Every structure is written in structure tokens, then in C-alpha cells.
């Protein structure tokens, strides 16, 4: 064998009765699964084992006696070089992992100085491990769907910009109607949209602009100040992405919008958590505007957020004990002055916040999903009351309950609703659900399925706020509607605006032509009632007759009085 090891390592097997033969270092080294080589002080190879031959893709006779860096010139000035020199110079054992490109191999190396000079080097091929780790790192920092930086990476970048005290702004971009589009088409539609938007946003990225996907339908842009550009202009550029519609795989085109919230470091906040949450708060405000829009963070939003948290907490708790109750507003036939229906309207006298308006807490309930428990709670109370009135007053007037968009597409909710109707033995003729046209639901197969079930059971279905949405006709053609509630905004304009009066007349005509029942909402003045009656709309709900009444007030006015008169 060419070249004899200079350092002699002798391993002795434990002495046993059967074997006292020493095993030479060479035997051990040759059978090792690790690569091993010995270098002298000048870093010349004096020995390599069989595994090293394999890893170096060479034969020992052609390398032994030659300088390591003469054989592997690309390793000059690399970690290999640095560590070997150091191990020799400082007489310490060093360990490291480095990539050697000509062999396309990652080596994990341990270099130990030897007493008599030179280095013993142990090494192994860790390429597979390194590659998986690299993939994992990639997955750890990039969003799988869009290839943009992911949440972790955004947080890290934000943190390091704050550490460096660099001025920058956070744009929190939320795609508005993605759930609706997913319900309308399929999940691929949502993914296609996210990818397309990501592509557009990517075109903004530069040294001064970092783009990432935070979660689901939310993107983040971190923007350093640039001369000649203000934040509003940049927000408008982002809005510009949403001006053109997006083609889906099925060739259908969809228009989407985004809500953008902006918060600035260090002006608005000095910590990563606060900064990002402030941008999100601003985004929530932008969401209140229909279509794409942006909003800058303002400190008052913190107060609003705190209020919202209190509402959220209350909704998640025991509603009955926290001041939640309901009122009933009569629907009156203007010709006979008879009570022909009631609408249940929720109220909340919150222990800390006082009276909260229904649109405010209903929206929070809808966003957080507590609308299900709230509505089921309401139904329990109302059904109990209906049964009581049936027993005492021969109650036979239809009761309407408001349902939000998320409830309508929730089959579990409807299962419970129907179950409760059975349990309380509620006559379906006496129940109506109101669905608002303002909700973004236009058409979803689940909603249609649930509404058809209601219809089949004999439950009435009313469209609320009719005339204010965008999908009036599609509602009427898609859903089994039995009643139309004309919105207060039309009624209000009676006697004031002839154009609105004309629209109102045609809405009444439309409802009549499809044989729907009709109610005018928000009737406050006699003049309004007279106009409606003259135009063939006879049922009214409004302050002219009654405000929403507490149950006890309602009982006194409509049940106990009638009861007395019927007893006469
Ligand atoms: P809505 O369903 O359109 O209810 C009618 C609203 O108009 C009620 O407001 C009622 O008090 C008010 N109103 C009735 N007549 C008149 C009138 O002559 N003039 C004026 N100015 N207003 C009148 P409220 O009770 O504040 O409820 C607001 C909205 O909150 C409701 O609008 C409904 O969308 C929602 N809401 C209320 N309770 C519930 C509930 O239990 N569940 C759901 N999902 N939504 C509810
Ligand atoms: Ca309603
Ligand atoms: Ca309404």
C-alpha cells in the first residue's frame, strides 16, 4: 500500500479468553463508514481510507503524497481551508458542514490535531440531509401557493427592519369576496385568484418593497419610503390591480375587490405586533366601504377594536345573563288595522357598553361565527313565547326572524332550526325567515338547498331591504321567495321625490306580478301609508303603527287587550 500512516493509532480489542490479537488502526479505519484521511502539517495527504476514496471519487495511489488544495483547488479559501488551518494553528478540534461544488457534495467534517503533528479528518456525505433541510427552509419561509414570503418571513423582515430603526409602512391587503367566490365556483377559483393577485403584487417587489402572503386571503406589503411617492398613491396602485376582472379556469370572469389598511413605523407603532395589528385594524375599516378602498390607521381604531373585543367576548358568553333580549315589531294591515305579522328584532343592553345597536353586534356575531348560537338562543326564546301565546291567546300570527348570509349557507344550523321547530311543535305556517338582499350571497347551492327545505316545510321566506341590493332580480329568480319587504329608503321619499315614487310603484308592481306578499318597511307618516295604499300595498311595518316593542309591551297592546275584548 503506498504511503504509510505517520501517526499510529492502535486500537485494542478488550482482552477475552478467546482473542488477544491486537487490531490495527488500519483495519478499523478501512472498515469505517465515515471517510477518514490524515494530513501532515503542510496539509498534504498521507493516508485516506476506502470510504474517503469513494467520497473523493479517486484512488488513494493518485492522491497520497499530494497537497489537499492541489487536489481540490476549489476548496482554497473555503470553510475547509479555514478550519484545517485553525485546527493546526490552535491545536483544537473543529467541526463544520460545507458544500464542495466540484463533487456536488455536502460534507460534515471533524478535524482533530494529532500529537505528533498533522490532522486526522473524519467526514461524511450529508447531501441528502442538507437538501431536505434546504427544502424545509424554503417551505418554512415561502408560501406554498403563491411563492411569496409567508407569515414567518414577513414577521422576521418586519422585526429586523424595526431593529435597524428603518422607516417603513405596512400595507395589509385583504381580498374581500373570496369566500363568496369559492362558494359560487369552487375552491380552485379562490386559489387561481390568489395566485394571480400574488403575481401582480410581486411586480411591486424591489429592494424597498417586500411582498408576502400573511394567511388565507391576506397579503402584506412592507414599503420603505421612496422619493416622489406617497403612501396614498402606492395604495391606489395596489387598488389598480383589482380594476380588471380575473379569468377563471372555466373561462368565467370574476371581479374582486380588496381592502387595504396602512400603518407606519415608527409613527403609528414601534413594535412588530402593534404595527401589524394596527394595519389590520385600518384594513377592517376599509372593509366597511363597498369595493376596493384603503384606510390609514388612526388611534381611535384602537378604541373601536377594544369595544369589538368586549362585544365578541359577550357574544361567546351566556347571552341571557348579559342583557340580551328581543323586541317585536308589528306588521299591520292598513285597511283593517289588524295585526298580520311580527318581526323579531334583537336588542342588547350590555353590562359594560350599554345598549348596542343590532347592526353592530350582529356584524360581530357574523364575523366571529357566534351568530349561530345567538340565533338559536333567540329561536328558543321566541318558540317558547309562541307556545305560551298559542296556549293563552290562540296566537296565530306569523313571526319573522332575521337570518344572515352565513346562516343561510349553514346546513347544521338549519338542521337545528328544524329540530327545534319539531321539538316545540311550531306550526311552520307561523314562521318566516327574512334574508337580506344586502348580503353578498346572490346564489350559492347550499343556500338554495336550505331555502328549498324551508319552503317544503311551509316556512315563509321574505326578502328584507328589497331594492337596496344589487341582485334584486337574481334573488327573485333563484330563491323560493314568498314575501318582499320594501326598504324604508323608498318609503321615506314618498311625497318628496317623484323619481323614487316611480321606482316604488314599479317595485310594488313587480312583487304583485310574481304573486309575492308585500310589506312596506319604515312607514312613519300618514302620507306614506296613503300613497302605499293607493298603490296596492297594504301591509306596513313602521313607527306610524309601532316601534319594536318589548315582549311585555307587545303582550299588553296586542294580546291582553284583544283577549279582554274577546271575553266580552
Ligand atoms: P331590519 O331587519 O331591516 O329591521 C328593521 C329595522 O328598522 C329595525 O332596526 C327597526 O327598529 C327599524 N325600523 C322599523 N320601523 C321603522 C321606522 O318607521 N323608522 C325607522 N327609522 N326605523 C324603523 P333595528 O332593530 O335597529 O335593527 C337593525 C337591523 O339589525 C335589522 O334591520 C336587522 O338587519 C338586524 N337585526 C336586528 N335583530 C336581528 C336578529 O335577531 N338577527 C339578525 N340576523 N339580524 C338582526
Ligand atoms: Ca328584517
Ligand atoms: Ca329591513
How are the SSEs placed, and which strands pair?
Layout: E1 10-11, E2 23-24, H1 25-31, E3 35-39, E4 45-48, H2 50-56, H3 60-63, H4 68-71, H5 79-90, E5 94-100, E6 105-113, E7 119-125, H6 127-141, H7 151-163, E8 168-175, H8 178-184, H9 187-202, E9 209-215, E10 218-223, H10 231-241, E11 246-247, E12 253-254, E13 258-265, H11 272-287, E14 293-296, H12 300-316, E15 324-333, E16 338-350, E17 354-356, H13 358-368, H14 371-393, E18 398-403, H15 405-408, H16 411-423, E19 431-436, H17 445-457, E20 460-466, H18 472-478, E21 483-486, H19 488-492, H20 498-513, E22 517-521, H21 526-534, E23 539-541, E24 549-550, H22 551-567
Helix pairs in contact: 8-9, 12-13, 14-16
One calcium ion (CA) binds at residues 464-465, 485, 521.
Helix content: 40-55%
Extract low-pLDDT stretches.
1-8, 10-19, 563-568
For this structure, the CATH topology of the largest domain is TIM Barrel
Q: How far is it from the N-terminal to the C-terminal residue, by CA? A: 126 Å
Q: Radius of gyration over alpha carbons?
A: 38 Å
Mean pLDDT: 89
Number of helices: 22
How much strand?
Answer: 15-25%
- For the record, the count of structural domains works out to 3
Give me the CATH architecture of the largest domain, please: Alpha-Beta Barrel
Largest sheet report: 8 strands, mixed, barrel
Overall morphology = elongated
Q: CATH superfamily name of the largest domain?
A: EAL domain
Strand order of the largest sheet: 15-16-18-19-20-21-22-23
**What ligands does this structure carry?**
ligand C2E, calcium ion
What structural class is derived from the secondary structure elements? Answer: alpha/beta
CATH class of the largest domain: Alpha Beta
Count of extended strands = 24
Amino acid at each position: 500500500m503506498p504511503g504509510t500512516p505517520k501517526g499510529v493509532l492502535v486500537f485494542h480489542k478488550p482482552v477475552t479468553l478467546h482473542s488477544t490479537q491486537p487490531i490495527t488502526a488500519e483495519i478499523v479505519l478501512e472498515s469505517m463508514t465515515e471517510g477518514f484521511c490524515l494530513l501532515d502539517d503542510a496539509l498534504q495527504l498521507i493516508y485516506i481510507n476506502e470510504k474517503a476514496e469513494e467520497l473523493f471519487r479517486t484512488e488513494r495511489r493518485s492522491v497520497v503524497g499530494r497537497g489537499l488544495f492541489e487536489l481540490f483547488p476549489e476548496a482554497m479559501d473555503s470553510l475547509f481551508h479555514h478550519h484545517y488551518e485553525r485546527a493546526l494553528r490552535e491545536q483544537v478540534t473543529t467541526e463544520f458542514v460545507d458544500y464542495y461544488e466540484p463533487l456536488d457534495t455536502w460534507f460534515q467534517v471533524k478535524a482533530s490535531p494529532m500529537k505528533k503533528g498533522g490532522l486526522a479528518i473524519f467526514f461524511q456525505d450529508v447531501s441528502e440531509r442538507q437538501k431536505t433541510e434546504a427544502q424545509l427552509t424554503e417551505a418554512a419561509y415561502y408560501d406554498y401557493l403563491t411563492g411569496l414570503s409567508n407569515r414567518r418571513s414577513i414577521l422576521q423582515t418586519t422585526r429586523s427592519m424595526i431593529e435597524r430603526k428603518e422607516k417603513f409602512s405596512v400595507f395589509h391587503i385583504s381580498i374581500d369576496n373570496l369566500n363568496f367566490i369559492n362558494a359560487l365556483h369552487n375552491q380552485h377559483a379562490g386559489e387561481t385568484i390568489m395566485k394571480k393577485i400574488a403575481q401582480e403584487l410581486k411586480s411591486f417587489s424591489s429592494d424597498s418593497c417586500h411582498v408576502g402572503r400573511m394567511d388565507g386571503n391576506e397579503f402584506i406589503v412592507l414599503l420603505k419610503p421612496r422619493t416622489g411617492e406617497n403612501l396614498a398613491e402606492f395604495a391606489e396602485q395596489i387598488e389598480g390591480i383589482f380594476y380588471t376582472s380575473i379569468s377563471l379556469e372555466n373561462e368565467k370572469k370574476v371581479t374582486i375587490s380588496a381592502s387595504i389598511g396602512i400603518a407606519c413605523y415608527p409613527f403609528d407603532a414601534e413594535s412588530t405586533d402593534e404595527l401589524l395589528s394596527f394595519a389590520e385594524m385600518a384594513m377592517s375599516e376599509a372593509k366597511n366601504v363597498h369595493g376596493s378602498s384603503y384606510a390609514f390607521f388612526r388611534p381611535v381604531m384602537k378604541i373601536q377594536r377594544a369595544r369589538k373585543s368586549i362585544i365578541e367576548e359577550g357574544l361567546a358568553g351566556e347571552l341571557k345573563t348579559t342583557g340580551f333580549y328581543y323586541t317585536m315589531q308589528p306588521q299591520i294591515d292598513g285597511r283593517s288595522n289588524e295585526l298580520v305579522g311580527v318581526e323579531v328584532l334583537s336588542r342588547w343592553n350590555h353590562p359594560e357598553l350599554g345598549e348596542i345597536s343590532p347592526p353592530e353586534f350582529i356584524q360581530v356575531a357574523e364575523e366571529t361565527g357566534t351568530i349561530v348560537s345567538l340565533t338559536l338562543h333567540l329561536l328558543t326564546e321566541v318558540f317558547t313565547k309562541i307556545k305560551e301565546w298559542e296556549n293563552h291567546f290562540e296566537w296565530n300570527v306569523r313571526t319573522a326572524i332575521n337570518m344572515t348570509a352565513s346562516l343561510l349557507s349553514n346546513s347544521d344550523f338549519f338542521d337545528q332550526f328544524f329540530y327545534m321547530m319539531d321539538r316545540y311543535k311550531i306550526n311552520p305556517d307561523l314562521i318566516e325567515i327574512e334574508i337580506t338582499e344586502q348580503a353578498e350571497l346572490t346564489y350559492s347551492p347550499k343556500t338554495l338547498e336550505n331555502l328549498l327545505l324551508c319552503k317544503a316545510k311551509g316556512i315563509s321566506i321574505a326578502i328584507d331591504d328589497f331594492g337596496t341590493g344589487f341582485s334584486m332580480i337574481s334573488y327573485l329568480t333563484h330563491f323560493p321567495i314568498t314575501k318582499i319587504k320594501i326598504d324604508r329608503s323608498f318609503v321615506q321619499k314618498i311625497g318628496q321625490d317623484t323619481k323614487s315614487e316611480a321606482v316604488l310603484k314599479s317595485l310594488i308592481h313587480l312583487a304583485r306580478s310574481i304573486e309575492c306578499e308585500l310589506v312596506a318597511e319604515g312607514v312613519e307618516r300618514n302620507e306614506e301609508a296613503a300613497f302605499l295604499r293607493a298603490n296596492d300595498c297594504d301591509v306596513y311595518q313602521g313607527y306610524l303603527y309601532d316601534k319594536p316593542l318589548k315582549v311585555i309591551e307587545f303582550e299588553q297592546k296586542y294580546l291582553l287587550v284583544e283577549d279582554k275584548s274577546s271575553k266580552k
